[in-house]
């Protein structure tokens, strides 16, 4: 399981999304617990984001959080509104200030 998980991370690094999908499916199918599958779910969520499939990435992330008992849906604010609020809050800072924040 660990080998497949690490191979999935390598596939993400190489932008090999086909291999990543196959490896992720194996980890999800054979993982004994939800915690065993979390790392590969994270990698899969990142791959969606890197592929500019942001809505799917956000949905998958929300699904993972919901399965962990953290429910963010239905809080009265859409994800788009939260993203816009974050952009507005960050707009007062320069790129260098954000990048150099510790």
What does this structure look like?
It is a single chain. With 102 residues, this protein is mostly helical. Helices cover 73% and strands 0% of the residues. It has 6 helices and no strands. It has helices at 2-13, 17-30, 34-50, 54-67, 79-90, 95-99. The longest helix is centred in the middle third of the chain and has 17 residues, at 34-50. It is globular, with a radius of gyration of 16 Å. The chain starts with a helix and ends with a helix.
Strand content: under 5%
Per DSSP, the total helix count is 6
The class by helix and strand makeup works out as mainly alpha
- Rg, nearest Å: 16 Å
Main sheet characteristics: none
User: Average pLDDT across residues?
Assistant: 87
Distance between the termini: 35 Å
Q: Name the overall outline.
A: globular
Estimated helix fraction: over 70%
Number-wise, the strands total 0
Order of helices and strands: HHHHHH
Low-confidence stretches: none
């Amino acid at each position: 399981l660990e080998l497949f998980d690490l191979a999935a991370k390598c596939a993400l690094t190489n932008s090999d999304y086909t291999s990543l999908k196959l490896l992720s499916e194996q980890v999800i199918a054979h993982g004994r617990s939800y915690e065993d599958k979390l790392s590969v779910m994270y990698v899969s969520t990142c791959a969606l984001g890197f592929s500019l499939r942001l809505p799917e990435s956000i949905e998958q992330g929300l699904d993972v959080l919901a399965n962990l008992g953290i429910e963010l849906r239905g809080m009265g604010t859409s994800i788009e509104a939260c993203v816009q609020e974050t952009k507005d809050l960050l707009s007062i800072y320069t790129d260098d200030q954000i990048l150099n924040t510790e």
